[in-house]
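FW: tagging you since you asked about this chain on Friday. Here's the raw sequence from the shared folder, copied in full. Didn't touch anything.
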Amino acid sequence: MERKIIITAAIFGILAIILGAFGAHALKAILTAEQLTSFETGVRYQMYHAFFLFFVASRTELPLKTLKVIYNLVLAGVLLFSGSIFLLTTKNVTTIDFKIIGFVTPIGGMLLIFAWLVLLATFFKKKS
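HL: got it, structure written out here
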């Protein structure tokens, strides 16, 4: 499981760097300031959770079940949160209006919060 988490974290990190550069250079002239700020938020949260996954994978005291729960919450959360932000903010580029998926952004955010809560609860339950 640790290998899977680290691979996913590395992919999230690589994509965050690529998307961040794409946003800063290619999209800067196309997107509004508000859209660019939102796009950057998606990139930032994706990178935060890449680091979070690296951290979780390094914690030997976490049970396998907890690792799986956190991994699945972060994977779904990043895809829904950051992914929907990327689609919603680039409608000028794709000419596709993704407003219909706007409701998944907060769902993705909640999944990310739940991942952190699972980690917190696991350490609160721990005796030492």
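FW: The CA atoms of residues 71 and 109 lie 14 Å apart.
HL: agreed, and Helices lie at 2-25, 33-58, 64-89, 91-94, 104-125.
FW: great, closing this out.
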